[in-house]
């Protein structure tokens, strides 16, 4: 049967696939749109399977705040060319909106959410077929707090969502989110720093001291000093403020509101 330009355009609108892919799918399906959609989906699975060993280090990070909740999604691909395509960004935002609409609790829940008649997981696979690249969803984050802020770096490859215990000045919140994005703290404070991170730094400190020829009796004390230095430099509230190194992030927040503090934080970078 004859496949018209209008038919191809209709299928393209339904699937987001390229014009030639849509034409071939319609020809194979003999004009049946549902069969053609399935053909395009299967192609996406085939492309995804063939490129499973590739590295997806390009992409976009998108965020949204709704009331006391903040959401962040990263959709990754292989090349900057695809990452900067408006349709790719639109897909990332579609996934983000789906996360918000379903208030998805975690990655597993998000991947199972429906976008039209397909799941988010299938949508990501289809995007592989459309682009010819490995496309994946490496990160989904959600936080809940009295007041939330978000920041995405200008390259769209890293971002932060951050929550405060109360409403704070928007400029202060943005500065703290930018700080976290730039400086990649391991946690909000020493109190919530993972035990395994602290233990690793302690072990490194002991070994460095031993290699420096320090007495065995002093190793633990030296190691604790190294841990304390690490926590000061790598936990958000203790870090020196980038815009004013004489002030810690905590001091910066307290200067604006003595009762305010950070209670939730998630950061993701495609480059880490």
Describe this structure in words.
With 272 residues, the chain is an alpha+beta fold. It folds into three domains: 5-50, Helicase, Ruva Protein, domain 3, CATH 1.10.8; 58-169 and 264-269, Tetrahydropterin Synthase, Chain A (2-Layer Sandwich); 190-258, GTP Cyclohydrolase I, Chain A, domain 1 (Orthogonal Bundle). It contains eleven helices and ten strands. It has helices at residues 5-15, 19-28, 33-50, 80-83, 86-102, 107-112, 120-131, 170-183, 195-211, 219-234, 249-256, and strands at residues 58-66, 69-77, 114-115, 118-119, 136-144, 147-152, 158-164, 240-241, 244-248, 262-269. The strands form four sheets. The chain has a three-stranded antiparallel beta sheet. It has a three-stranded antiparallel beta sheet with strand order 6-7-10. A two-stranded antiparallel sheet has the order 3-4. A hairpin with a 2-residue loop joins β3 and β4 (118-119). The N and C termini lie far apart (51 Å).
What topology emerges from the helices and strands here?
Blueprint (H helix, E strand, L loop, with lengths): L4 H11 L3 H10 L4 H18 L7 E9 L2 E9 L2 H4 L2 H17 L4 H6 L1 E2 L2 E2 H12 L4 E9 L2 E6 L5 E7 L5 H14 L11 H17 L7 H16 L5 E2 L2 E5 H8 L5 E8 L3
Helix pairs in contact: 1-2, 2-3, 3-7, 5-7, 8-11, 9-10
Rg on CA atoms, Å? 24 Å
- CATH topology annotation of the largest domain: Tetrahydropterin Synthase, Chain A
Order of helices and strands: HHHEEHHHEEHEEEHHHEEHE
Largest sheet properties: 3 strands, antiparallel
- State the end-to-end CA separation: 51 Å
Strand content: 15-25%
Cα shape: elongated
The CATH architecture of the largest domain comes to 2-Layer Sandwich
Strand order of the largest sheet: 1-2-5
State the CATH class of the largest domain.
Alpha Beta
What is the number of domains? 3
Structural class: alpha+beta
Low-confidence stretches: none
Proportion of helical residues: 40-55%
What's the CATH H-level superfamily name of the largest domain? Elongation factor Ts, dimerisation domain
The DSSP helix count reads 11
Number of strands: 10
Oligomer: single chain
Average pLDDT confidence is: 90
């Amino acid at each position: 049967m004859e496949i018209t330009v209008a038919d191809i355009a209709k299928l393209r609108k339904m699937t987001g696939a390229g014009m030639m892919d849509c034409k071939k799918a319609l020809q194979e399906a003999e004009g049946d749109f549902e069969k053609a959609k399935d053909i395009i989906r299967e192609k996406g699975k085939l492309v995804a399977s063939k490129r499973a060993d590739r590295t997806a280090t390009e992409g976009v990070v998108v965020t949204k705040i709704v009331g006391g909740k903040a959401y962040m999604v990263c959709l990754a691909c292989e090349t900057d060319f695809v990452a900067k395509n408006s349709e790719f960004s639109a897909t990332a935002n579609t996934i983000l909106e789906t996360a918000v609409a379903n208030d998805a609790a975690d990655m597993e829940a998000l991947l199972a959410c429906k976008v039209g008649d397909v799941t988010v997981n299938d949508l990501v696979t289809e995007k592989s077929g459309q682009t010819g690249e490995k496309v994946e969803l490496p990160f989904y984050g959600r936080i809940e707090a009295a007041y939330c802020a978000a920041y995405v770096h200008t390259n769209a490859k890293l971002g932060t969502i951050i929550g405060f215990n109360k409403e704070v000045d928007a400029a202060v919140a943005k500065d703290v989110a930018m700080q976290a994005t730039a400086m990649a703290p391991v946690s909000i404070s020493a109190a919530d720093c993972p035990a395994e991170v602290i233990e690793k730094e302690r072990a490194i400190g002991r070994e460095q001291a031993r290699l420096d020829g320090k007495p065995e009796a002093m190793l633990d004390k030296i190691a604790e000093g190294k841990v304390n230095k690490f926590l000061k430099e790598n936990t958000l509230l203790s870090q020196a403020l980038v815009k004013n190194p004489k002030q810690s992030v905590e001091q910066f927040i307290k200067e604006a509101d003595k009762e305010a503090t950070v209670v939730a934080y998630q950061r993701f970078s495609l480059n880490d």
